[in-house]
Fold:
Amino acid sequence: MVHQRRPAPVHDLLLPCAVVVLSVAVYSSIDDATPSALALYVLVLAGATGLMVAMHKKSPLDKVPNAPPKERKEDPLLKWERPAREECPVCLLPLPIDDTKEKGDACYYNCCGSNICNGCMYDQIRVSYEDAMQRGDVKSAKPPTTCPFCRDDGSTTVHNTLQREMTLAKAGRHRAIWRVGGYYLDGRHGLQQSDQEAMKWFRRAAEAGSAGAANAISLCYMNGDILPRDRKKALEYAQKAADLGRVFSFGMVGQLLLQEKDLDGAFLSYRKGAICGLSDAHTFDVLREAFKLGCITKDEYAMTLRENQKSVNETKSDSREAWKRMKGHMPSPREHG
Structure:
């Protein structure tokens, strides 16, 4: 496997050189410096500059130094097993990769500590309203705050958020432990803001198996705002989060390994993320550049793209697609807390 950058082909340099020569010829032909001649000269130079800039556009790997050639007999990810993904407890399909509140692809219910996909929530609201309309009493439909898993109606959940989360945390539910840490970090639900307490809860959640908490700790080490900046610790917790199933963390691991000049590890991590369904533009840009540079083979690149599409399709369902189409027109689910 060759990691050295390929030199620019000769034909890539011919056009800029020709444009520069043409601009010099135009300039030498200007005798009286007429406005039209000057304008032509400026346009030619601008075109030459634009072409040269476009041809030397930065790639995600521009800061990565050359590495010695390395051969391998088979794809190291050929027998790699993807980490287990969290499933919706109702439809038992893997949750969408981005289950954050901002994206709204899933909703957390602290009545039972379940993370429900919006497809199941959509089905509950649709069936409830259809049944109520058949009975001729729309008001009897279940409110959209009802948990699709344990059927709690959410009437007291919003006001007792901290109490519910503490109960789940005492039972060892790592997502609840992580969320309590978030409340300390933001100073919400009656808790006094404390970075120290937040990190204490985050570490406890990570030890209990929370990929989100491990990812949060990695970001803290990476940014150096709450914890001392430590790239080694950031890498350790990002890898832990990835191994626990947080797909976005594979991209963080890849970025950190690129900074450490570990090309093999970085490209493997980006490929793992893509195989698990990570489909952001940066990941595909890195993989594309790695393939162009000869850092991953054609078979490895093709296999990564196939598995990526397979993982994306595993999270799709008719109900989830219907929710996406109806988003903005459906009643709001329960507040995440």
